[in-house]
């Protein structure tokens, strides 16, 4: 009887560039070791899934406000520390290039190629006034029930 | 032989409204799927268990200071991002109402009704100068040993 | 056949004194209950492993900047909340003393004595421009593959 595949599930709650990097590095590593991997993006973590472009969509006033103030995509998120209005992240990206560490948008691309399941939490998508057209293609929309079904079989479950 | 119940344990360290919401939504979901669920509140997460009222208690000076500066209960916690002195949270609550998402105090009430075990970490209760009378009724007080006993049998263990 | 030892793995991403305290209290507790325990320090969590002294090392400009702005060791980290430029932490340490709670440097010392495996994430050590000489003796250097090997057998896996 073949051994069951290991499972890794990550809730990405944070909207910080460095925390999202950690999440995607773990996810890509686990996928490389043949785990079934899922990242559930909720609250500010949804920003990692936004397209890096202005998508014109009709929205209510509050939704427009939230959407406007949140970063448009992975590349525009900030560091959780020493961000200094973006300067810290610029320096970090510079150092990352020097050390051949992948920037976040590429880590996300790689995760998709490796078959990591990217999920957007439907409830918080609605709360933050995001629309499907604003988010990356190929992602799924689901809720806590789907998360629990995956995580309760998970070998590694993290909240980031 | 009946299958053992699944177990979910969450450490709620954060004092942010949105993170506490995430913790309680997962906890309530897991309880609905018949998991044994425990939330261990430690450090700033204890604020979610404070009563929404001023309880007159004799305390030392430092304890009074900490107690005064920390939010009195779940409804007075702030967002981890875009709080803007409370305006962000007000907008969020407004949107939540529109989308029929439960506010945090109701999520906590529901957790209690579903039999989620709410634990306050005794050590940090002492450090922050909180008294039992200030915290919600029906919660337990315990330490790291109790947490480890639960979590080492846990299917889903999260630190939030 | 003897039962296998339980395993606890913690990723310490945070550079906050209180979060690192939580990580080390759980780690020490788990070690006392005979778990195999590993703490993987990554990003700002590496500061907990820095020596509390200025170590003169030749570095590039960016690396010098990062290194300069990050706290030199566990005792110089700040609280995640109510730090107030260090005053909050001073008060917290004062209260901890009164309640016989161990300060972070002692918790780390105890972890080492109990055989908790302390790992520094090689990639982020490089990104933040840290050098081996600046970090505590007796720690290991490893990457995501080592983490995954440990965590996929872990009973308790946390991201802090």
Automatic annotation (TrEMBL), chains A, B, C:
InterPro entries according to UniProt: DsrE2-like, DsrEFH-like
Query: Which Gene3D superfamilies does UniProt cross-reference here?
Result: DsrEFH-like
Entry protein name:
Sulfide reductase
**Taxonomic lineage per UniProt?**
Bacteria, Bacillati, Bacillota, Bacilli, Bacillales
């Amino acid at each position: 009887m073949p051994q069951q595949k290991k499972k890794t599930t990550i809730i990405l709650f944070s909207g910080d560039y460095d925390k999202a990097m950690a999440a995607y590095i773990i996810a890509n590593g686990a996928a490389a070791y043949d785990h079934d991997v899922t990242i559930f993006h909720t609250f500010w973590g949804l920003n990692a899934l936004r397209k890096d472009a202005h998508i014109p969509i009709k929205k209510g006033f509050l939704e427009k406000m939230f959407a406007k103030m949140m970063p448009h995509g992975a590349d525009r998120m900030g560091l959780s520390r020493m961000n200094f209005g973006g300067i810290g992240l610029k320096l970090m990206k510079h150092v990352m290039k020097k050390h051949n560490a992948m920037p976040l948008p590429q880590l996300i691309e790689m995760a998709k190629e490796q078959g990591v399941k990217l999920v957007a939490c439907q409830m918080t998508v609605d709360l933050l006034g995001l629309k499907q057209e604003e988010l990356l293609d190929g992602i799924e929309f689901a809720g806590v029930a789907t998360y629990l079904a995956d995580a309760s079989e998970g070998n590694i479950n993290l909240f980031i």
